[in-house]
Amino acid sequence: MSYKTTLAPGMVLARGVGRCLSSLGFAPLTEFVPARGLRVDVIALGPKGEIWVIECKSSRSDFTSDQKWQGYLDWCDRFFWAVDPSFPTEILPGDAGLMLGDGYGAEILRMPEAAPLTAARRKAVTQGFARQAALRLARLHDPNVNLAEF
Amino acid sequence: MSYKTTLAPGMVLARGVGRCLSSLGFAPLTEFVPARGLRVDVIALGPKGEIWVIECKSSRSDFTSDQKWQGYLDWCDRFFWAVDPSFPTEILPGDAGLMLGDGYGAEILRMPEAAPLTAARRKAVTQGFARQAALRLARLHDPNVNLAEF
Sheet of A97-102: strands edge to edge? Predict the structure, then answer.
C-alpha cells in the first residue's frame, strides 16, 4: 500500500516540504495554529530563529478557495506556496515564495523577500510553536496529557 | 503487561510529572538538550513563557551519582526534583523545588523561588525547545527528516 492512499494530497506534499526544510536546517511543524481561526499547513523554525510558513496547494481549486492565506503573512518572516509539478503556478501571487515538490522532497524555486516579524510577535510565535509541538508529542506518548494546544 | 515493564523508573515518573505539568498549563518535553553534554529529564514551557526543569530521581544512588544537576539551573526559571514516595527526600537540597509522584500523576510539594533567565537565554532555550520538539515529532512521521536536534 502506498502512503498516498492514506494521506490527503496536501499532506503528501507537506512531507516532501518537511524534508526540504530539514535539509536547510529548519525544524518543520505541520498544522500550526498561530491564532484562533488560523491554521497553517507547515511552519518552520530556522537555526537563527527565522520563521517560515508554507502553504501546500494540491490544485487550482485548493488555491482559489483559500480565503485566509493573506492572514498568514503576519505570522512569518517568509511565506511560500508549495505545489506539485502539475500545478498552474502562474495563478500564484509572484511576491510569495515558491516550492516545487512531491511526497519525497521539494526544492525552493523562488525565495521571497524577508519581512521580519517584530520581536514581540516572533517571541509569541516561537513560544506557540514550542508548546504546540511539545503537547502533540506528549499526547502521542500519553493520551492523558490533555492541555489544549491553543 | 504493565507499562512499568517497558520504561525505566525515571521515565515512569516523567509520565506522571508530564500530567502534573499539563494540568498547570505547561507543555512538557522529555530528554531536552539545552547545551552539548547536558540532557534534562523534563523541561516545560508555561503559558507566559516560563521555563521549568524537572529532574526525576528513582533512588538515592540515582541522585548521588548525578554530577551535572547544578548545571541545569542556568537553563530554567525554576528547578524541581521529582521523586516517588519511597525516596529519602531529606538528602535533596532544600532550595530546589520538589514534586512527588508516580507513573499516574504528580504534585508540587515545594515551589522554589524563581530565578528568571535573561531575555537572551530565554530566547535561546525557547528556540531550542521548539526545534527539538518539532524535529522529534517530524521524525516520528518521516524517518527521512534527519536534521540533528542539537
Answer: A27-32, A40-45, A51-57, A78-83, A97-102, A105-110
Burial class (CB in 10 A: 0-12, 13-18, 19+), B78: buried
Distance CA A55, CA A76 (A): 12
Residue in the structure block whose three cell numbers are 514551557? B45
Chain B from 51 to 110: CB within 8 A of any A CB? none
pLDDT in tens, A16-49: 999 999 999 999 999 999 999 999 999 999 999 9
Compute the mean pLDDT over every residue in chain A, rounded to the nearest whole number. Answer: 92
Radius of gyration, CA atoms only, chain B: 15
pLDDT at A5: 55
Q: Which of residues 113-132 of A touch B (CB under 8 A)?
A: 123, 126-127, 129-132
Q: Which fold has domain A9-141?
A: Trna Endonuclease; Chain: A, domain 1 (3.40.1350)
Q: Are strands B78-83 and B105-110 parallel, antiparallel or unpaired?
A: unpaired
Q: What is the ipTM of this complex?
A: 0.92
